[in-house]
Amino acid sequence: MTQIQNNQMVTELDIAGMSCGHCVSAVEKALRSVPGVDVVTVSLEEGKATVQGNAEQAAMLAAVAEEGYVATPRG
């Protein structure tokens, strides 16, 4: 799901395959590497990532996939 808050897009992604803190770190790092991403929050318990910024959704999904996880738009 993508919303606009404070003139920034907020995208929620379901992340499959995370099982530990290292997984969370890997997904955060991958998403932060995408141009246009400003803030990333990843929740292992909820299996989701919340991304603020004006990044391309396809680029975010690809970055997570490169780390070996599956990201899908939430909502």
Automatic annotation (TrEMBL):
PROSITE patterns: HMA_1 (PS01047), HMA_2 (PS50846). Residues 9-72 form the HMA domain. The keyword Acyltransferase does not apply. Gene3D superfamilies: 3.30.70.100. Keywords: Metal-binding. InterPro entries: Heavy-metal-associated_CS (IPR017969), HMA_dom (IPR006121), HMA_dom_sf (IPR036163). This is HMA domain-containing protein. Pfam families: HMA. The keyword Metal-binding applies.
